[in-house]
């Protein structure tokens, strides 16, 4: 098991990563939960991993109750959030009851938001069970639900007490979801040092086979990058926005197709290809660079092109992006691998050029 | 016009108090709003004060749109909150669009919570139009909506950019609402120095007549007390809880009677009498002290007894209070005027003794 510390201005907390995070609960759980916990999971994850967590809490003498939600991005909304609040109120959860998020990114984002807002802030622990949530969404305190008109539009910055990333839980993850998580791993490789990009290209086959040491190395490296960025810029006033590489395009895909039709990671994969194309349009990347990204995404069985949409649909969705400032869309682009930037002066002609091969007639 | 500064760990901001806060918008508004604002008000306040605010924003060159909500505590819930989110999304409000809360405590609490959570945090300005919101709820960053099972259960600590308390707007306030606000003024007198309590007793008639200087003095004094407390304890880990004097009982009254039947300030008035009775039960206050409080509340035309409820109803409501810890109810009591304390070991017998004259058969 490896331990990483996240130090934000508002709160410091550990991330435990490995195949044995449950075997040392005195270290990984006991210090971070109170006398009572609310375990919040979904219908898919609960049958797999709830009993083990309950046994650990029993052993620690922590009382608990469970709230089981429907599974999927389509349920990351105010109705499901109200199911959490209702369950907390009905079980008389107090301001010091620890909310435990057991599941993937949707569960983590929603439970984090519920914790941020229940009685104006309750403690919470993230137990991410998907690759995407382990490498990205469970770290850094971004919590949110979707609005019908835009993804993650309602939320808060709110840090957990601890994150427990059990790599063993990835063995039950459907292959499509594992690939979706790999999109965020690849994102870190495009944003970070060249060595990690090369390492990832060389180890993608081993990663896809979940070779334990390689998997642990990849998850640790991504969490470390994210922890470094979040420590510098918790509330995304600057460098943290780079982590949205591919996400402006990706969110448009998710919104257009209906939440849950494309997995978030799949939309981000196609979105990163588009961010590369836009970087080409701006004269930053070469076509060969984008081809290298496409090859890596394909090795992870990810889509490398968006669904066909007309330009006005793209524009309509992207004008709801949280990075929009004074009506101006802002995109994360790559000046080179490892050198991201925010482009705030993109005009429609440039966007049309970048999207041209993918537009609907 | 008087100016007070609130300095919390998370944010510092001014409160402008007076009959002329709108006459100096370069000082009171311009520095705190961006290029675009969302004015959020209700059906009662908007016809009275929206046009004046719009004229001021026009003069400042700030673009704006308005969202008008139904009026009343009964609407302080997730449905109305979603009306705010929907309006913000439909008007493409951005992360730097300033939300302006124009109304009383319900509007201020809801808009503050919408601002805390829209795109993970948008700037907001409080323009409280009721006495209660001017002396209490608009200051200090407590934002919330109600849950069907408990008041203010969903919320956040989130500070405004500025607070504009226009005392002139109190002239259109119904007498019952003005009295309700006076309950919070009296609360500050019970919590603070003896001089203010005596001053309030001597000036209650002038206050009820809205004599301008006396009114300004009272609002300023309350805001100053609150600013001092919030600067010491923004997130209510300690002394800030004293501001909940009478509120545990008051929230039970509101929940039992249905939100909006008793005004919040009316419920707090009766709740403060009960807090005094509990303080008597604990041997802290004398009956004569409680009678002094009752006389002051009566001078403000406030209720001094709760509706009749059986003890188990009281207990059921109060066990949902945010101050409950490890199943133990905690009450704000007065060891003496000006000396509040948290009593965490109150048993049912003591509660029954304090409530006895008011219980339903």
UniProtKB/TrEMBL annotation, chains A, B:
GO terms for cellular component: cytoplasm. It comes from Paralysiella testudinis. This is 3-dehydroquinate synthase. The keyword Endoplasmic reticulum does not apply. Zn(2+) binds at residues 184, 247, 264. The gene is aroB. Residues 181-324 form the 3-dehydroquinate synthase C-terminal domain. Coiled coil: none annotated. Catalyzes the conversion of 3-deoxy-D-arabino-heptulosonate 7-phosphate (DAHP) to dehydroquinate (DHQ). Its EC number is 4.2.3.4. Keywords: Amino-acid biosynthesis, Aromatic amino acid biosynthesis, Cobalt, Cytoplasm, Lyase, Metal-binding, NAD, Nucleotide-binding, Zinc.
């Amino acid at each position: 098991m490896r331990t990483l510390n996240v130090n934000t201005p508002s709160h410091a907390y550990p991330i435990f990563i490995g195949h044995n995070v449950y075997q040392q609960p005195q270290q990984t759980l006991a210090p971070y939960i109170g006398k009572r916990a609310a375990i919040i999971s979904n219908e898919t994850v609960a049958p797999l991993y709830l009993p083990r967590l309950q046994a650990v809490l029993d052993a620690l003498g922590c009382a608990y109750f469970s709230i089981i939600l429907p599974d999927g991005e389509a349920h990351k909304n105010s109705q499901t959030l109200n199911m959490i609040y209702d369950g907390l109120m009905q079980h008389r959860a107090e301001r010091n009851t620890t909310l435990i998020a057991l599941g993937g990114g949707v569960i983590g984002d929603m439970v984090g938001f519920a914790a941020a807002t229940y009685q104006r802030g309750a403690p919470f622990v993230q137990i991410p069970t998907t690759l995407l949530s382990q490498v990205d969404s469970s770290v850094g305190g971004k919590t949110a639900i979707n609005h019908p008109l835009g993804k993650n539009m309602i939320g808060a910055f709110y840090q957990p007490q601890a994150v427990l990333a059990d790599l063993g839980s990835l063995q039950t993850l459907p292959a499509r979801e594992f690939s979706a998580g790999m999109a965020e791993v690849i994102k870190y490789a495009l944003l970070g040092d060249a060595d990690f990009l090369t390492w990832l290209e060389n180890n993608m086959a081993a990663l896809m086979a979940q070779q334990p040491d390689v998997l642990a190395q990849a998850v640790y490296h991504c969490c470390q990058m994210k922890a470094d960025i979040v420590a510098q810029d918790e509330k995304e006033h600057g460098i943290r926005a780079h982590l949205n590489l591919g996400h402006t395009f990706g969110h448009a895909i998710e919104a257009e197709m209906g939440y849950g039709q494309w997995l978030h990671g799949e939309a981000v994969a196609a979105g990163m290809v588009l961010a590369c194309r836009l970087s080409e349009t701006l004269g930053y990347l070469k076509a060969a660079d984008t081809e290298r990204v496409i090859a890596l995404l394909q090795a992870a069985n990810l889509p490398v092109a968006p669904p066909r949409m007309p330009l006005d649909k793209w524009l309509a969705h992207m004008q709801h992006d949280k990075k929009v400032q004074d009506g101006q869309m802002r995109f994360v682009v790559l000046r080179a691998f490892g050198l991201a930037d925010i482009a705030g002066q993109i005009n429609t002609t440039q966007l049309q050029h970048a999207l041209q091969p993918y537009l609907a007639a």
